[in-house]
Amino acid sequence: MKFLITNDDGIDAPGLAALVAAAGTFGEATVVAPAGPQSGVSHAVTWHNGVRIEPRGDRRFASHGTPADCTRLGLLHLVPDADWVLSGINHGANLGADVHYSGTVAAVREAVLHGWPGIAFSHYRRTGIEFDWERSARWIAPILEDLLARTPEAGLFYNVNLPLLAADAPDPEVVWCELDPKPLPLNYRHEAESGLYFAGDYNLRERTAGADADICFGGQIAVTPVRLL
Fold first, then answer.
1. Element (H, E) at 55
2. Which positions ≥6 away from 128 have C-beta within 8 Å?
3. What's residue 126's pLDDT?
4. What is the pLDDT of residue 185?
5. Per-position b or e across 69-78, b if 16+ CB within 10 A of its CB
6. What pLDDT score does 193 carry?
7. Rg of the chain over CA atoms, in angstroms?
């Protein structure tokens, strides 16, 4: 099996390395990822400027573009025979309405638009607990095994969110659930010299019982099928 793997945190992000490690159990990975952080760019693509691609080692390429650009260029020029497009593991959750803002999710959505199946992986974060990327790779391995064995459906991708647990916590359960329709709370702080900054508290977002935010905040892995409209 061949994978195109990308993200929005940049080619040097440890979450990307964790996803590559997990996918390596199932096939060959080609990485086409942004040269630097592109978090929150949603489904932006480069229209009126050129996009440079730099080799960064064996089957690794850095794109000076957006995550969606990475998917486009990867599938067109670098790994057109990819079986799946994988994105992540994002350094932060992409739950509910976040899928509309996330570059991580947009990279997979772009693949699905062109007929390739895809999975987006993200990792909730909280102050005071560090990411354990080796453990995260172990958590997603059985999820990959399950999803990769399924027959791809046109217009469908999967959005996976990992909880952030204490080092001594037991491994989380995997729960299939819907997207939470509630957005982040609107809140901006004013800074006299530079303007308004979004200051909504991610952890205080409203949750729908049983939807992905509730599941992930509750310490379980949320797996959500998402269909294009």
1. strand 53-55
2. none
3. 85
4. 84
5. bbbbbbbeeb
6. 83
7. 17
